[in-house]
Amino acid sequence: ELQYPQQLNAATALIDDTIARFGADRPCLGSPGETWTYGDVLARANRIAHVLTADLGVVPGNRVLLRGPNTPWLAACWLAVLKAGAVAVATMPLLRRHELDKINATARPAVALCDERFLDELPPEVAVVSFGTDLQARCAAHPVTFPDVATAADDVALLAFTSGTTGRPKATMHVHRDVLAIADTFSAHVLKPRPDDVFAGTPPLAFTFGLGGLLVFPLRAGASVLLVERATPTELAAIAAEQGVTVLFTAPTAYRTILDAGVGHLLAGVRRAVSAGEALPAEVAVRYREVVGRSLIDGIGGTEMLHVFISAADDDARPGATGRVVPGFRAEVHDVDGRPVPDGTPGLLAVKGPTGCRYLDDPRQRDYVRGGWNLTGDVYVRDAEGWFHHVARADDMIVSSGYNIAGPEVEELLATHPDVVESGVVGTPDPERGAVVTAFVVLREGAVPGPATARALQDHVKAVGAPYKYPRRVEFVDALPRNASGKLLRVALRERAAASPTEPEAPAAH
Ligand code: 3UK
């Protein structure tokens, strides 16, 4: 059981309390050009908190929209918002006006703090202060100390928007206690960070995967974090080697790309490499272990749960399984009526723990939380040893001629063919079969996109998996569509498949 005082400000805990434990002169936030010590971060966050409250009239409970790529300024603004007792609404840098309009309408921020290079897409009705120059100039007029607002542990600290691809975006509310709870469960028990650790990675701070891994976890441990604005997977590997990164956060496709490029050895100094957002293909997990000598830490988390609740560990991983329940959480596999199913049987993943789903003003709360359990929308199997195996998102199950086929499973089978870089597998409606398994495939350089390769891939799937799972339709594409947090957009593939009627069994060359 985690115990927190009733009065709790997560930003005070992450900065002021960490300084009290480890001192102010240690490195805290780094970017390619500079390093801010804990003392620098404290002074800047405090001054920004004065700007928010004194200059901009922000009061506790107001929401403050944040926008920008991962930089020390963005991180300091996030801490300042919490110090002021306000609610941080961080937005993904890739979002454009249309998406920001929806977020603005739901969150109704009092003011926005925005990287000066990212002002363009903000809705005109939002009052905005840009950082660094404008905000920096205002900061100079304020003292480096600030009396942090004495928030309650269960006051809302942040709104995080789900990466959902249909309908109105859902805002999830997380309280000050939740922010510390993710550090004191997954990070403390699985990552076991030390003050000399150097964290880095690619997820935006607006994605709670990045917020935890690239701000909350390092600061809770007195460690430092290197914030990179943008990096290809191979650039990330080079940065990790050059900068002595020891804890790394990125998506499964990035690890795969690093291994494919033959630069996996650059991660030799990384003690903990976390993969989340999508299922980690077993093949990638195996190759990573061979090349780097440690296991990737696969973890499933979610915006609704704030962070990871089932994970492997660097010294305890099983390729093909996500992991085991993180201490502090409970997880079960349920049938549609909410009853636990026996081990070995697929069902709906149900989770409870110190964090959980609280949608802001949204009837979909009723679907996500049932009988006290959070239903993530994933189909999972638990084995007798307590390992959880990801099957698919419930929406990504394909029912074809009465068979239940998980799109991601067919993707795994395809990934074992040497010509395949990656694939996205969805169902296309079909009058006879209900749905037809359709694979969008990215081929390795040199492989020929055409009927012969399609046939070879189909035969391969039939040979390594149950034959009924083979993709009756195969389409070759240059890249797969992904959303702002790097997830495969299966909805877009379904639309594409439905829009381009192809003769089954006679795939067109791309
Ligand atoms: C899927 C996974 C298999 C799964 C997230 C870590 O991804 C995060 O949050 P989102 O709200 O999406 C949640 C959904 O993504 N998923 C995530 N990780 C895995 N599926 N294996 C995995 N390891 O469908 C889940 O329900 O975007 C991940 C930490 C914080 C996060 N917000």
Secondary structure layout:
Elements: H1 10-22, E1 27-31, E2 34-37, H2 38-55, E3 63-67, H3 72-83, E4 87-91, H4 97-107, E5 111-115, E6 128-131, H5 133-139, E7 156-161, E8 171-175, H6 176-191, E9 198-201, H7 208-221, E10 224-227, H8 233-243, E11 247-250, H9 252-260, E12 272-275, H10 282-292, E13 297-301, E14 308-311, E15 324-325, E16 330-334, E17 347-352, H11 365-368, E18 369-370, E19 373-382, E20 388-393, E21 397-400, E22 403-406, H12 407-415, E23 420-430, E24 434-443, H13 451-464, E25 473-476, H14 490-499
Parallel strand pairs: 1-10, 3-4, 3-5, 5-6, 9-10, 9-11, 11-12, 12-13, 24-25
Antiparallel strand pairs: 1-2, 7-8, 13-14, 14-15, 16-17, 17-19, 18-19, 19-20, 21-22, 23-24
Compact overview of the structure:
With 510 residues, this protein is of the alpha/beta class.
Structure, described:
- The chain starts with 9 loop residues before the first helix and ends in an 11-residue tail after the last helix.
- Helix 2 packs across helix 5 and helix 9 crosses helix 10.
- The C terminus is likely disordered.
- The protein has three domains: 191 residues, 3-Layer(aba) Sandwich (Rossmann fold), CATH 3.40.50; 162 residues, ANL, N-terminal domain (Rossmann fold), CATH 3.40.50.12780; 99 residues, GMP Synthetase, Chain A, domain 3.
- It has 510 residues and is of the alpha/beta class.
- It contains 14 helices and 25 strands.
- Strands 2-1-10-9-11-12-13-14-15 form a nine-stranded mixed beta sheet, with helices on both faces.
- The protein is globular.
- The site of 5'-O-[(S)-[(2-aminobenzoyl)oxy](hydroxy)phosphoryl]adenosine has 24 residues, from helix 7, strand 13, strand 19 and strand 20.
